[in-house]
Amino acid sequence: MTTPLFLTPVFQERIWGGQKLKDLFGYSIPYERTGECWAVSAHPNGQSVIKSGPYEGKTLGELWTSRPELFRSQSAVFPLLTKILDASDDLSVQVHPDDEYAGIHENGELGKTECWYIVAADPGAEIIYGHEATSKEQLVQMVENGHWDEFLTKVPVKAGDFFYVPSGTIHAIGKGIVILETQQSSDTTYRVYDYDRKDKDGNSRELHLNKAIDVTTIPQSYQPQEYKVAQKEGLSVTTFVSNSFFTVEKWNISSLTHFQEQPKYIICSVLDGQGQLTLEDITYPLSKGDHFILPANFGPYQMDGQLELIISHE
Fold first, then answer.
1. For this structure, is 67 an active site residue?
2. Which InterPro entries match (predicted)?
């Protein structure tokens, strides 16, 4: 019988992390500065583990290899990575490569296109989202001279906002923001600026200016974001983005909702509320902070309760 795959996250210590992953989601976090919850990951730097059921104890990467029928994907590796980030301090200003550049320069790693759903934000919180340089020469000049105020584009944010961050985008998450990030399964980041901070050993963190300049999109332009919203009884679906990298949606469930069989595997993260998932008379409780995968050909099934979920798939 097909069952949902509930996952145990992996937590990562970060210089800019804090305690909000515990405060907001009730996670038992291992570090004073816990910055990242790798909630759904098959990346070698932090793999989620199946929490229960017939595949209990297996990593997501092991399951991807040994039971491909659960995913029915054409991808060679599990292509997506879902994180929750606690930016209790500013993240470094950074940029990510695309697949082609990463494949050549990062030992075959995927590139990193990502997107952010703002879970929580302190009053006045901002992100860096893009830059003001109009040519490579101007970009190099601004970076080398440290003209960060003129170079970086800052955007105020609030809970419920969404941002698509394609590879080549200069960006940074600001202090006081918690996000759910859906991204390609990559751990490649090129730092451009880190506020002259020191790591726990008193050393300046490495910058990657040559590679960053190579991959940054110049000039940077953004299309106005328009989201599709579909309603049916008990369910509102907001589609934030759908492209060759991923589809990301928000599901708001307010009462019993029936779903047809799910032909693709889908990744589900419960951001708020409580409820339940039912398949063939078996009920699985759902709570804030749960992450699970519905395998390919899952269903028909039902969800009930008061739930806010972020859903993603290839």
1. no
2. Carb_Metab_Reg_Kinase/Isom, Man6P_Isoase-1, Man6P_isomerase_Firm_short, MPI_cupin_dom, PMI_typeI_cat, RmlC-like_jellyroll, RmlC_Cupin_sf
